[in-house]
Amino acid sequence: MGALVDMWGKVKRYYKFTPAELRGFIISILVLSFIISFKEWGKERFSLTMGLFNWFNAALIVTLVFIVYNFAHRISGWSLGYNAEYKMWLTGLFIGLVFAFVSRGRIWVLLPGGILIHHLAGHRLGHFRYEINYFQHGMVAVAGTISLITMAALFKVVNANLNISLLNKLILFCVVLAIYDILPIPPLAGSRLYFGSRMVYAFMFCTIIVAGILLLLDINVLMAVFGSIAIGIICWLLYYIFFEHKVWSGPWPKK
């Protein structure tokens, strides 16, 4: 109970957006929603009314996803004594726009940005390592990626009998964004986790990729979740046996 009260106190105290962060959210939402709605500005010929309507629907999807995505970062950060701040990546957004125009919306390149970690000194008292470290930074970053896959799984369960096109698009957006986010490209979450722990990254990378693919297929959600975890464990073991174990054994010959 004390932990919940403490977390609620952190929510009230720290869940405030800086002007730069709020500006980054708005720009990222507008750009990403434009990318995923690019093909829907008229079927046979351009239609401004239809395009704006679909852009608005896409913006609703991206806004909902971004709220949960950001909250996952902040909750995981607060639990470790950090505050996670969203940082827009203009270059990534520009690359996404270029691919949208070149491919006429057929290829989604979703590279919105990453997070900055701020040290909450008063909440880090008594921790073994007082300063910010790469592993904890990576775990806070990947919490957002996990939330994307979780959202995709939950909405697939909800939409199983409804088959609403807007929810199908939300599921696809969550999966694609999660796959891009786990890539080891700065400032995406994958780069933070990779430098924090290669072993954890090997597991999370395979699990997120496989989970995303399985959630887009017509199979049971539980099978997709547990199947992706099982494949992630297998990939983790193979990575350790064929790479990490040899790296840590050193360059010197064995006796």
Assign an overall shape.
Answer: globular
Structural class: mainly alpha
Number of strands: 2
Span between termini: 55 Å
Helix and strand run: HHHEHEHHHHH
Helical content stands at: 55-70%
Strand fraction: 5-15%
Per DSSP, the total helix count is 9
Count the domains.
1
Q: How large, in whole angstroms, is the Cα Rg? A: 20 Å
Overall mean pLDDT score?
A: 88
Poorly predicted ranges (pLDDT <50, ≥5 residues)?
none
Describe the strand arrangement of the main beta sheet, using strand numbers: 1-2
Main beta sheet: strand number and arrangement? Answer: 2 strands, antiparallel
Describe the structure.
There is one protein chain. This protein is mainly alpha-helical and 255 residues long. The chain has one domain. The protein contains 9 helices and 2 strands; from the N terminus they run αααβαβααααα. A two-stranded antiparallel ribbon has the order 1-2. The longest helix has 33 residues. The chain is globular and about 60 Å long.
Task: Please provide a brief summary of the model.
With 255 residues, the chain is mainly α.
Helix and strand topology:
Elements: H1 2-14, H2 19-36, H3 48-80, E1 82-88, H4 90-103, E2 113-119, H5 134-158, H6 165-181, H7 189-196, H8 198-216, H9 221-249
Antiparallel strand pairs: 1-2
Helix pairs in contact: 2-3, 2-4, 3-5, 3-6, 5-6, 5-7, 5-8, 6-8, 7-8, 8-9
